[in-house]
């Protein structure tokens, strides 16, 4: 969400003591920085706030008149940018048992009770919420107005007047045992309750609760197909010690550091199947060597560009050469800011690169074991990591801005123009994926290998 957020000022008075907020969230680039999921209040001295704090702990807190009347922060840290979390805060200050007044659940399980900060809500206290003076925010803090949410959100529900269990919003999958989403609205949301599914790509602040409130969006929200039921690949901000890149737009855009060559890589790896994604450079130093491709080797130094090792392959923007094992050979054509396509066939261990929907070296991604125009690669099982990851690096001084489209339909904040889905009807690409190739996401990995 960057500096964008959704807001509404209540038109009526609801409960001051009881409420439940449920949200499915995927963390972005603002790790170790305050990032609010939901907040409400009249000012920085009177509020209720539910956020990841600057230590990556989940925190539920409230102030009245400048003093804390509730503050609970987990000892556990939540730093995984590749996964969706289901987060629930359930408050009832009338509960006799102090710990029951403020419950936090993660993926259907109540946080067990070892806290970094442990101040239970005062018995029978009226919190600063649910009045016409208490603005409600989704994706921004009230206490810390710079605490914007930077990742993805889905199915945010607020129930006014009830302290609910997470089973109202999620359930255990009977086959996998994984906690999964319920996509129906809670039937009685209360006076100020709402339900933002964020599924309508043209109306992300649509309230799907029975209240059907009108919300206001500040800033620009970027739509995504990434959701709790189908987790898409992004780039990995945790694997950034040597690359030292700066991440944004849900970790699909990376600004590289000048003179640092190590690649940034994807969160999801591939060990079988056929996969397609797109890549674009939106800013760079003219005439620079930029490398995009795949890797199955962990960088151990900043000077190790994509193509340094036996088990990573890339194509160079400067001259279209293939790079592998620290050597370059003739392969394709130069490229700059065009839409670059990558087709990875791990059924036959072949790799193809395309420029504006024309495959380099007269490649034919559907040629199977023949591998017409392909780069032949090592079978994943014989590589150091046992799987390949998408990657790119900048092989010159200066720096560049790289953007990936794993099927979310954007390069940075710019939407693709054609929105071509894969053969499973998933994703939005600038160009149609070759027949038999799929977007890199959990549904496709389950269905087609990976």
Structure description:
There is one protein chain. The protein is mainly beta and 450 residues long. It folds into two domains: 5-218, Jelly Rolls, CATH 2.60.120.200; 246-448, Jelly Rolls, CATH 2.60.120.920. Helices cover 2% and strands 34% of the residues. The protein is built from one helix and 32 strands. It has one helix spanning 442-448; strands spanning 5-8, 18-26, 35-43, 46-52, 58-64, 67-74, 85-92, 102-106, 109-110, 115-119, 135-138, 152-160, 170-172, 179-181, 194-196, 216-218, 246-248, 253-255, 264-265, 274-283, 290-295, 312-316, 322-324, 327-329, 340-345, 350-355, 358-359, 375-376, 389-394, 401-405, 410-411, 414-415. Strands 10-6-5-4-3-11-1-16 form an eight-stranded antiparallel beta sheet, with no helix packed on it. Strands 17, 18, 20, 25, 26, 27, 28 and 30 form an eight-stranded antiparallel beta sheet that branches. Strands 9-8-7-2-12-15 form a six-stranded antiparallel beta sheet, with no helix packed on it. The model has no long low-confidence stretch (mean pLDDT 94).
């Amino acid at each position: 969400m960057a500096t964008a957020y959704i807001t509404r000022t209540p038109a009526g008075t609801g409960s001051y003591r009881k409420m439940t907020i449920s949200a499915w969230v995927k963390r972005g680039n603002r790790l170790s920085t305050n990032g609010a999921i939901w907040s409400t209040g009249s000012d920085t001295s009177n509020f209720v706030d539910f956020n990841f704090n600057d230590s990556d702990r989940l925190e539920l807190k409230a102030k009245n008149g400048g003093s804390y009347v509730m503050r609970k922060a987990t000892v556990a840290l939540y730093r995984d940018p590749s996964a969706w979390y289901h987060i629930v805060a359930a408050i009832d200050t009338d509960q006799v048992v102090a710990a029951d007044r403020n419950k936090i659940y993660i993926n259907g399980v109540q946080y067990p009770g070892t806290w970094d900060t442990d101040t239970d809500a005062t018995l029978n206290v009226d919190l600063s919420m649910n009045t016409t003076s208490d603005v409600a925010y989704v994706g921004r803090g009230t206490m810390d107005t710079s605490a914007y949410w930077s990742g993805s959100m889905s199915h945010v529900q607020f129930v006014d007047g009830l302290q609910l269990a997470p089973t109202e919003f999620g359930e255990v999958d009977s086959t996998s045992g994984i906690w999964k989403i319920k996509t129906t609205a809670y039937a009685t949301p209360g006076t100020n309750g709402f339900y933002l599914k964020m599924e309508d790509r043209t109306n992300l602040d649509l309230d799907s609760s029975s209240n059907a409130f009108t919300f206001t969006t500040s800033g620009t929200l970027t739509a995504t197909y990434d959701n709790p039921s189908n987790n898409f690949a992004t780039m990995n901000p945790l694997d950034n010690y040597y690359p030292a890149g700066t991440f944004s737009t849900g970790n699909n855009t990376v600004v590289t550091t000048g003179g640092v060559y190590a690649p940034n890589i994807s969160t999801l790896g591939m060990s079988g199947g056929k996969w397609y994604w797109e890549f674009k450079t939106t800013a760079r130093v003219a005439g620079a060597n930029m490398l995009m491709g795949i890797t199955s080797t962990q960088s151990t130094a900043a000077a190790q560009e994509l193509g340094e090792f036996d088990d990573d392959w890339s194509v160079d923007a400067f001259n279209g050469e293939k790079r592998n094992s620290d050597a370059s050979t003739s392969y394709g054509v130069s490229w700059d800011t065009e839409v670059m396509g990558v087709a990875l066939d791990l059924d036959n261990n072949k790799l193809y690169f395309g420029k504006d929907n024309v495959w380099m070296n007269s490649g034919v991604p559907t040629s199977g074991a023949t591998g017409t125009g392909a780069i032949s690669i090592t079978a994943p099982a014989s590589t150091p990591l046992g799987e390949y990851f998408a990657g790119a690096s900048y092989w010159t001084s200066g720096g560049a801005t790289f953007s990936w489209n794993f099927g979310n339909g954007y390069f940075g904040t710019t939407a693709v123009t054609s929105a071509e889905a894969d053969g499973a009807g998933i994703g939005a690409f600038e160009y149609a994926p070759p027949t038999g190739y799929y977007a890199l996401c959990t549904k496709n990995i389950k269905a087609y290998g990976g």
